[in-house]
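Key result, reporting period 2: structure in, sequence out.
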């Protein structure tokens, strides 16, 4: 094999050693301020004190950072690109491939196309601070966050910085940003009421209750019981990570400590499918021995066997509401958050009476 030429070697080395382009979030981190403060300082906004502005400008120069002025000027009037931001979790890589998020992103893409926008899909590490760089650098006129993985205070700060964005998720207290989501408490109540109406008396719930949406589904689970004068056994509450192996292991533990469980509300369809597969391996029949209901109504729910009773989230209406709220912000308006109604879809996994 012929040796590599010095020219090709030097080019490869140069490409390897070339430093990454500095981001506005890098300046913010070094200056100890927010990304929005950096943006204002570089634009010469009077909202930033002169001493802070000079410090930020000097940092930007030392990093060879240049502001995309053309993009800033175009952002609100001629830029037709919207960034859809999805999280990348170092310990949970499959989130982007979840059927629910695929359906959400697809519906958002359709809604954007119908309104004359293009979609830029961006994946960022959930713990990083560069989640809004697509806006600050002028690549996108606005942002859509596919979930509440960002800190509540970070989102409020972004809203105070006049960044146009919408979050898919649950409404929260002291929220000044716009969210679009479904009524998760109502959905959890619907699923649990259905299991109780079908005759189940020991209904478990499985999910990650550290997230705002699933916490509300758990509240709906409690509400459905208490309206019937029931108080669910704490042993029936399975707080687990969204990971197939962990869900399966925790379902096995549930069966071991509460062998008389006769109904399970799984807080997502994929969780429900993992639960059902685990029950079958453990010799339990669905729905004859244990009724199971899921949440989301992904397309696979109707093809799974047994087909899955689930709470449907209206993806097309949600996507329209998300994009419409963002368009209102691009026009300088302040849209209200929107909470959509869910509905129960009954299938084979709860088709028998107790």
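The corresponding designed sequence is given below.
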């Amino acid at each position: 094999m012929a040796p590599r030429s010095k020219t090709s070697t030097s080019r490869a080395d140069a490409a390897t050693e070339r430093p990454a382009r500095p981001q506005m979030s890098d300046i913010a981190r070094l200056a100890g301020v927010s990304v929005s403060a950096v943006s204002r300082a570089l634009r010469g906004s009077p909202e930033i004190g002169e001493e802070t502005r000079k410090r930020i400008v000097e940092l930007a120069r030392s990093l060879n950072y240049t502001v995309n002025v053309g993009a800033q000027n175009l952002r609100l009037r001629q830029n037709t690109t919207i960034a859809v931001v999805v999280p990348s979790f170092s310990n949970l890589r499959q989130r982007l491939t979840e059927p629910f998020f695929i359906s959400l992103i697809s519906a958002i893409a359709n809604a954007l196309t119908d309104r004359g926008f293009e979609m830029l899909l961006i994946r960022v590490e959930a713990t990083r601070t560069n989640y809004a760089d697509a806006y600050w650098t002028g690549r996108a006129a606005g942002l859509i966050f596919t979930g509440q993985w960002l800190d509540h205070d970070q989102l409020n700060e972004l809203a105070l910085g006049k960044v146009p964005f919408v979050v898919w998720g649950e409404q929260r207290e002291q929220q000044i940003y716009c969210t679009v989501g479904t009524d998760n408490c109502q959905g959890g109540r619907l699923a649990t009421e259905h299991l109780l109406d079908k005759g189940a008396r020991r209904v478990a719930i499985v999910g990650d209750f550290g997230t705002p949406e699933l916490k509300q589904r758990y509240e709906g689970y409690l509400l459905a019981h208490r309206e019937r004068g029931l108080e669910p056994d704490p042993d029936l509450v399975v707080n687990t990570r969204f990971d197939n192996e962990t869900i399966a292991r925790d379902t096995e533990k549930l069966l071991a400590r509460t062998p008389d469980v006769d109904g399970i509300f799984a807080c997502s369809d994929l969780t429900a499918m993992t639960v059902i597969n685990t029950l079958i391996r453990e010799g339990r029949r669905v729905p004859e021995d244990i009724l199971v209901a899921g949440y989301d109504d992904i397309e696979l729910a109707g093809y799974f066997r047994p087909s899955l009773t689930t709470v449907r989230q209206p993806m097309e209406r949600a996507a329209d509401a998300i994009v419409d709220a963002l368009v209102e912000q691009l026009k300088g308006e302040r849209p209200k958050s929107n909470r959509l109604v869910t509905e129960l879809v009954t299938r084979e996994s709860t088709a028998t009476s107790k």
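The mean pLDDT is 86. The chain has three domains: 22-64, 79-182+317-340, 184-314+343-350. This case is discussed further under Risks and Mitigation.
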